[in-house]
Amino acid sequence: QVQVAESGGGLVQPGGSLRLSCAASGSIFSLDTMGWYRQAAGSERELVASITSDGRTIYADAVKGRFTISRDNAKNTVYLQMNSLKPEDTAVYSCNVEGTYYSGTYYRGDYWGQGTQVTVSS
Hints:
Elements: E1 2-7, E2 10-12, E3 18-26, E4 28-39, E5 46-51, E6 57-59, E7 67-72, E8 77-82, E9 91-102, E10 106-112, E11 116-120
Parallel strand pairs: 2-11
Antiparallel strand pairs: 1-3, 3-8, 4-5, 4-9, 5-6, 7-8, 9-10, 9-11
């Protein structure tokens, strides 16, 4: 079984910063793309940023220049550094992990974390 756990969310003032962490554990053989998504109240879930196993990144236009995604392959962990936060960044942020897993045999799949709340308000 694979577990995905996010942490680092909270309440921050506009212009402030937060760093989110997402750690995968369990029967992991290798990890491919890892990404952060967010869903604001009344809105659809959208991709915030993603990073491949060799470091290629994609960012949503709304966060370019403010957010940075990174990963530590040795720890099976992906991070999202969020700077210059705006009220419109308020959402539940969820982590998605793609990779190869082992459960008697090898298979490819993806897992979601439970999400962590980020609230940007004065």
